[in-house]
Every structure is written in structure tokens, then in C-alpha cells.
Write a structure and sequence with these properties.
285 residues, mainly alpha, 11 helices, 72% helix
Length: 285
């Protein structure tokens, strides 16, 4: 229970951080806005075609007497749309992080600098970082999809499918959402995706406490866009405590970054964030 509450606190700390550094909050909105437009278009197509998909998937109900075909297909449409929303929640963060890799890398680094020090991270070109992010995202997505299919099938179980299964589904989604959000800070520490999963499985309640409230909030229209910068900030703070041995003390140059290159300082002042190759700003730049 303590870890569950601690996870929620990290989420709150991240939102407070971006509230104090509003230029970074605005900076972090851009990738989520782009992804939201793409997802809204895809979900609109799903809803428009849901009846046709239900009829195609249940041809055996054509000979049933009324009202059973309509009831079965209505349930199928509801579960299909719910599954689409669940898939959107599970993949929204991965796609947004991929689209906004340089943005969120800079944001995450600035959070770590403001907290005291920031690991230097592997020196990789931008294309390599994008490839690693895509590969890791697919790995996590495949694992999450397996659970999603199981939750979809269990949704047909009377009573449990309408009560217990949605709760479990939210918690599973919250865990994988936490995995995705912590990937930015974990990748900077050169922790491979399988090791990330082991770390978070060892503190499952912490991951669920952080991710599940976001899953529920992301169901609110536009909430994902507004909350994503704070979610990345909170996940960065969570990783600092989850894998503290990976961080290295900062030098004076690293402490000065964010102010020297024109980004916001600890008080939010400055001319705004700077994105360069890989999302990192070399010390002394």
C-alpha cells in the first residue's frame, strides 16, 4: 500500500514541477498534440466501421431470433470500442515518446538537473536513439497486447467481465504506462528494456500507483496532452529513486545547463528549451 501511494505522489510531483517551469510544460505539449490528432482520426474510423466489423465477426447470429443478434452485436461493438480505447491508452505514450524523443529527453534531463545531477547517458546519434525507442516500445507493446487480448476475452464473462476485469485491466494498463514513461530516464542510464521490466515488476505497486491514475485521466478528452509533460517529469523523478546507483554527481557545467543554453532555469526563467541532436545539449554549449 505504501508503494501504491508513493507512485501517486511521484505523479503529483511531476505535475508540480511542470507547473513551476511553464516553458518546459508548453515545450512538452507539442508531441502529444500531434499524436492526439492522429489517434482521434483513427478512433473515429473505428467507431464508424464498428457495426460492419461486428456483423462480419458474428455471422452465426444471422439466424437467431430478435433481439439476440442485436444484443450480441451491440456488446461486440461496445467491447471493440473499449478495446480500442484501451489500446490507445497503452500505445499513446509509446507513440508520443517516439514522436517527441528529442523533446522529452531534454525535459527529462532538465528535471534531473534541477533535482541535483543528471547522468550523461550513452552518446548515440538521434537516429539510433529513435531506433532504440521504437524497438523497446514494440517489445513493451507486444507484452501489453497479450494482456489486452486476455482482458478482452474475459470481458464476455458474466458479472466478472463488467466488474472485476475492468479494474484489473486499468491496473495492467497503468503498469505498462509506467514502463513507457520511465523509458526516457532508463534509456539515459543505459538500462535495457528487459531490465526495466524487472525493476518495475519488483516494485509493481509503485508502478501501478503511478500509471493507473494516468490511465483513468487519459480517458478524459485532451487530458493526455495536458498531463504528458508532467507525467514524463514524474517518471524521471521515480527513476532517480528506483535506480539511484545509475546516476552520477553533476559537474558545475552540468548544473549550469538549461540556463547557459537559453532554457529555463530552476525558477522557470530563460528564453526557452533548446533541442539538438538526440535531445541533449552538450555542456558548455
Amino acid at each position: 500500500m505504501r508503494d501504491l501511494v508513493t507512485g501517486m505522489r511521484y505523479l503529483g510531483r511531476g505535475q508540480r514541477w511542470v507547473a513551476r517551469h511553464r516553458r518546459w510544460w508548453g515545450f512538452g505539449l507539442l508531441p502529444a498534440l500531434i499524436t492526439l490528432v492522429l489517434y482521434a482520426a483513427a478512433f473515429a474510423v473505428l467507431v464508424f466501421r464498428a457495426d460492419a466489423v461486428a456483423a462480419w465477426a458474428t455471422p452465426f447470429a444471422d439466424g437467431w431470433g430478435a433481439p439476440w443478434p442485436a444484443l450480441l452485436r451491440g456488446l461486440f461493438v461496445a467491447l471493440l470500442c473499449a478495446g480500442g480505447l484501451l489500446l490507445a491508452v497503452l500505445t499513446f505514450t509509446a507513440v508520443t515518446l517516439l514522436v517527441g524523443e528529442p523533446f522529452y529527453e531534454s525535459l527529462s534531463e532538465r528535471v534531473e538537473e534541477s533535482a541535483g545531477h543528471c547522468p550523461p547517458g550513452p552518446d548515440l546519434p538521434l537516429w539510433r536513439e529513435l531506433w532504440v525507442a521504437l524497438r523497446d516500445g514494440v517489445h513493451v507493446l507486444l507484452r501489453a497486447a497479450g494482456f489486452g487480448l486476455l482482458m478482452f476475452a474475459l470481458g464476455f464473462v458474466p458479472f466478472l467481465g463488467q466488474t472485476v476485469v475492468p479494474v484489473i485491466g486499468c491496473c495492467v494498463s497503468g503498469f505498462f504506462l509506467a514502463v513507457e514513461l520511465t523509458s526516457v530516464a532508463m534509456q539515459r542510464r543505459d538500462i535495457p528494456v528487459r531490465a526495466r521490466l524487472r525493476l518495475l515488476r519488483g516494485r509493481t505497486a509503485l508502478a501501478v500507483g503511478f500509471g493507473t491514475p494516468l490511465v483513468l485521466l487519459f480517458l478524459v478528452p485532451f487530458a493526455a496532452v495536458v498531463l504528458m509533460p508532467g507525467a514524463v517529469a514524474g517518471a524521471t523523478l521515480l527513476v532517480r529513486d528506483l535506480a539511484p546507483g545509475e546516476a552520477e554527481p553533476s559537474s558545475p557545467d552540468r548544473e549550469g545547463r538549461g540556463r547557459d543554453h537559453g532554457g529555463p532555469g530552476p525558477d522557470g526563467s530563460g528564453t526557452g528549451p533548446d533541442v539538438r541532436a538526440g535531445g541533449r545539449v552538450p555542456a558548455g554549449a
